[in-house]
Amino acid sequence: MKKSILTIALSFILISLAQAADPAFIAAMQKQLAAKATIETFEQSQEVTNGFMRIAEAAESEWLPFYYAALLKTEAAFRFDIDKDKSLDEALELIKKAEKIAPGNSEITALNGYILMGKISLDPAGRGQTMSPEAMQLFGKAINLDRENPRAVSLMSQMELGMSQFFGTGPEKACGMARMSLELYKKEQAKITEEYILPTWGKTQADQVASKCN
């Protein structure tokens, strides 16, 4: 019986590894990530987002296409003159789909908090009191899920800095977390290869927080 359970478990692991290493999936993701790096207009952002959604339809067991589509929706809300609330709400729906595929994922959890940060920034007075604790909770959860995730630590540092500025307290905690995230980004950089398609964004935000600590 134990042998059968182990065999089944091993089969699932091998299937997962095979899917993760699928050359067609990796190539498609790399193409969209390269296109993402060149976005200058909202129309281009939509086009790349649609590309990730097509990959999501073809690779139903992969969370990354939904994740990047949600990230693009979030970045579009920060960058372009659009209906920002609508874009962020769409990002939240996409991140729910990613989380359904990969529950308990640190990257997904951190991005969920980042989307809430975007929502808060649109109406700090009306949303800060209710949404800020939720965002902080998500960042804390993301860190606990993976203490090597630089985005989780960096985003937490941004929230800490904002709160310190709002309440008029010192930025020491935010600065410490920002410096920690920069060290984690260095470690992450050493892992990146040509086929690396996991998230690597966020260092610019960490640099911005750290620059306020000098």
Number of helices: 10
Alpha-beta classification: mainly alpha
- Return the average pLDDT rounded to an integer: 90
Span of the ends, CA to CA: 61 Å
> Which residues sit in consecutive blocks of at least 5 with pLDDT less than 50?
1-20
Largest sheet: none
What fraction strand? under 5%
Folded structure, characterized:
The chain is mainly alpha-helical. It contains ten helices and no strands. The radius of gyration is 18 Å and the shape is globular.
Q: Briefly, what is this?
A:
The chain has helices spanning 2-20, 23-36, 42-58, 64-79, 84-101, 106-122, 124-145, 150-167, 172-191, 203-211. The chain is mainly alpha-helical.
List the helices and strands and how they pair.
Blueprint: H1 2-20, H2 23-36, H3 42-58, H4 64-79, H5 84-101, H6 106-122, H7 124-145, H8 150-167, H9 172-191, H10 203-211
